[in-house]
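tool=predict chain=A
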Amino acid sequence: MSTRYRVRYHREAEQDLVEIYDLVANYAGKQAAQRILRDIESVVRALAAFPYRGSIRADFPDNFRVVPAAEKAVICITVHEDIKTVVVRHVGYAGSDWMVSVQGRLT
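tool=predict ok
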């Protein structure tokens, strides 16, 4: 049986989800916003079993990875092998500048 990792959100990544919901709900309606958040959450849950998904970004420290989700979303994570934990650092949507947003969340 494979090792399952704990998945947790950086405190500001939780706010990212609220902002994505509000953005989508305003232009496409609440049902579309709920569908997108479900899709994002599904990818995040899968990280417990498959923490090394996505592309590694050598230009960021700390085993930083970027995982696509929900067609227009990107989930920025770090994998901490020593404590078997994946930290969701940022969730971006629709071309948001995740590279800038994630800078202050790497500690």
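The CA atoms of residues 62 and 107 lie 9 Å apart. The mean pLDDT is 91.
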